[in-house]
TrEMBL record, chains A, B, C, D:
InterPro entries: Metallo-depent_PP-like, YmdB-like. One of its GO terms (molecular function) is 2',3'-cyclic-nucleotide 3'-phosphodiesterase activity. It comes from Desulfofundulus kuznetsovii (strain DSM 6115 / VKM B-1805 / 17). Pfam families: YmdB. NCBIfam families: TIGR00282 family metallophosphoesterase. This is Metallophosphoesterase. Fe cation 2 binds at E39, N67, H151, H176. The lineage of its organism: Bacteria, Bacillati, Bacillota, Clostridia, Eubacteriales. PANTHER family: 2',3'-CYCLIC-NUCLEOTIDE 2'-PHOSPHODIESTERASE. Keywords: Hydrolase, Iron, Metal-binding.
């Protein structure tokens, strides 16, 4: 099975990048399943029903989220209805939505997608490591093809998760920093790993935001309403080849397309 | 002028990587000046007189530091005596050592090296943006070839610094996360930029530390004495071509060598 | 001179507490000057022109602020026009408003009020200790009666400021935690000190906010729009007796009135 | 039942304060049970076997801990052997020691002591609110006299815990900030509450540490080895009267003794 994982889609430029790049990649690379982090898809913050529909119509099979998941109120209903949107699984019990799900890819069999969030420099969620253990126990016997989006800030927490799940899942793809890292590799046991897949959004920006606004914030410490930058996009993703039977990743390759 | 900037050197494996890679690179790439971040060079924490001598003898021209700069007591004397070791310039006035210096490269002219540290998720230093302004004013008329090591955690603060100094310095090289990013580029005005140059140290580790120790920390929240991992190394660096006259960067290229 | 410093006024219940308590206290205690922290006076977040007018009309001479200072847009104009509103002095240069001012109390002479904010667990401002040094140098020869509102989270940073300014100012009053501390004392050199003056606002709340909302936040980690609690108020303040000539504090006394 | 809860005991001055104050208080106030936070009892950091023996011999029945619990290596064995030392219950499963225990007070019946730690501005532990629910379920039918030491930084998290447990436990005593708060009260349902009991240690200090060292840290941002201050002590505690049958608190009173 060939999987495409797309880094945080930011606003309109990110969605344009998606529509201009995904069809071609699917054709050229013969992609079986597409997962994208969509936590910044609607104006840079969260996702709306309409934007979710747009992403899913563009060819994305599953949308994962992160700390921005709750930015738009309609997510609370949407995430209960739409099984193709996941939020970090390590929110406390009782929170709307699901943090993992098993999907049918067609003749290539099933794939499980897990969304987890880090805690270092972030918010006070349940332990993502122990939550991973619980979810993997539930997947026993259902599928060995398992993709994890670990949405986290600290490189240490992300690499630790990579090693923790090495040999137990097909891939651990980091998200959240909006900068693609150059450390993609196959960890022992056949787990594809990358610290951060990067951002699909406006290139001449500070992680997607108008650079003047972010600089103003750093220089004055005054609050600024952040807006998504305009201009040419970047498309950041990874392609992962997975053995359908064993769930082992054979190859992981970074993709960076520019407008 | 061709510059080599080497990402955080971690412990013995990092120093071995240095000695096995630098001479060859210098020969093949015709490097004029070598800067390396050495904040983890001595056992993963800080630097000692002996390790500094070792690094400088291996071909490094200037050692920059970061939040680990003060881990060994002897740094307090050492940094006053050795002009080739810099610590972040935005420590409060009166702190030992210097945060920038101008060096002679020989027939290629002068180069200024600036070391700055971020504040987001880090400690309460002076504003690195305003400090950069001050130092650049001091360099007026002395040299236009200026390299900045911005040692910071958050991608937003690092990219903001890149844009802030675009067209004003030759290069902004991020350090600290120990993971090389794949976003190297020449910003408008001729400034080479990369969010993080990465780590020169043990590859099968969590940012240089034995992975079992870091995982134990995350799983139990008990304190652990971290030790540098052993095993094969990675060598992370960037090569930057700079116009000696204008100080503009023409090209930046990532380097990753593995044992 | 007898000074009254009132802890963070929170929303409507805080303003009601002010109006029901201040006149009586002024009469009974013969207060010469009233300073209050007003960063939460307008609906729990920041201050508006109308609320500022209300506070000043209620008998407050100077309003200090904190991290919530910029919550309402109109503060940007207001703070430039109204000298009786201060924001933390250790914002970067160029930020609207002032962080200190000297006021005439009438026949008791002048008083300087300084507003500073902490950095530990808060935002990346300039060093409040060095900023205090600068401001005190400017006050040399103008007045020895100096009140500092140090708006900070960590008890360590607040006590450190108390000791740093002991013998140099008349009083260091901590604000921000919304809980009055029981450590009021006169430090050597005649400086009144208290780690936190507390909150003037709704008593049956979590630091002023409806408790159900805060508990919901802690239990689910979902974002909540915080609202000021209703119900009976608490009025928190300190009375400080200062020698008009020397600026030395002779006594500090806590006040807690309940509805 | 009359309970005495003593705020964080810091180093030698704290232990001296204990020995000079506890016997008298026990006699005068007819105390039935004494709990003290001992996380800083040994030289300011953690506890040792010898110091624990000293505290228990001085009349303390149960020692609670906090974020400094693991500072001395011998705690790992000690806490497994000594049921009178508790560490925060919301460490992950498998961590040495216990976070709650039921004790016999003699003819006044049983008392349960729970130790919990906050997460805001602290480390990544399990949710203290849900952990409290679990432990209270285990205490069902065993005793209604329940004391909670909630070791936390943020006033919001502490007050939230007070309200969460109001009517379910006898007392919620906050610790960790080393400054006694003046907000002691009986919450609805008969729960004694105070945001922080304060510190039993050297008075002329920054939360127990030599003030010169802490000031040096704030002014230079250089690391400092903190040492417990010397000089006169303060003894901080609360006395709580609890109905043995219903477990309801009838009164809570702050104690501050000075040398
Ligand atoms: Fe994102
Ligand atoms: Fe995110
Ligand atoms: Fe480093
Ligand atoms: Fe670092
Ligand atoms: Fe406030
Ligand atoms: Fe505040
Ligand atoms: Fe403590
Ligand atoms: Fe503590």
């Amino acid at each position: 099975m060939r999987l495409l994982f797309i880094g945080d889609i930011v606003g309109r430029p990110g969605r344009r990048a998606l529509k201009e790049n995904l069809p071609g990649l699917q054709r050229e690379l013969d992609i079986d399943f597409v997962v994208a982090n969509g936590e910044n898809a609607a104006g840079g913050n969260g996702i709306t029903r309409e934007v979710a529909r747009e992403l899913l119509a563009s060819g994305i099979d599953v949308i994962t989220m992160g700390n921005h998941v709750w930015d738009h109120k309609e997510i609370f209903d949407l995430i209960e209805q739409e099984k193709r949107i996941l939020r970090p699984a390590n929110y406390p019990p009782g929170v709307p939505g699901a943090g993992f799900c098993v999907y049918e890819t067609g003749h290539k069999g099933r794939i499980a997608v897990l969304n987890l969030a880090g805690r270092v420099f972030m918010s006070e969620l349940d332990c993502p490591f122990r939550k991973a253990d619980q979810l993997l126990a539930q997947l026993e016997g259902i599928t060995r093809v398992i993709l994890v989006d670990f949405h986290a800030e600290a490189t240490s927490e992300k690499m630790a998760m990579g090693w923790y799940l090495a040999g137990r899942v097909s891939a651990v793809c980091g998200t959240h920093t909006h900068v693609q890292t150059a450390d993609e590799r196959i960890l022992p046991g056949g787990t594809a790993y990358i610290t951060d897949v990067g951002m699909t959004g406006p290139r001449d920006s500070v992680i997607g935001v108008k650079k003047e606004l972010v600089l103003g914030k750093f220089l004055t410490q005054l609050p600024r309403r952040f807006e998504v930058a305009s201009g040419p996009y970047q498309f950041n993703a990874v392609v992962i080849d997975i053995d359908d039977e064993t769930g082992e990743a054979r190859e992981v390759r970074r993709i960076q397309n520019f407008e």
